[in-house]
Amino acid sequence: MRPQTILIAGPYRSGTGGDARLIEANLKAQELAAWQVYRKGHLPLIGEWAALPLAAAAGLGSAGAAVPSQFLYDVAARMIARCDGVYRIAGASAGADGDVRRARELGLPCYDSLDQLADADGTVP
């Protein structure tokens, strides 16, 4: 299997009540999943990796306000259109569920376990 670009979909703000520490923990969980996908030989992407700097450049989420959810969703949708698949990690999240729906509409594979994603060298885990 050739290396694939895989979007990591999981909670970001969901279930945090806006608590910055919990939001950071959610992002760290996505980043751990990204590292696991990378170790399998693929290129992981997380929507917030692109959305947050773009939002800052646009002046969104300034003065302590959260970046609008729709902005985060739109960036993820554009990323999904360029990806080969989506890895949905655990945790309630309307945005991540939407990412999976969009990927399926595009005919992309969606994984809910790392074991489902073959190594890039052609072996199946």
UniProtKB/TrEMBL annotation:
Gene3D superfamilies: Hypothetical protein PA1492 (3.40.50.10400)
Highest taxon in the source lineage: Bacteria
Name of this protein: DUF4406 domain-containing protein
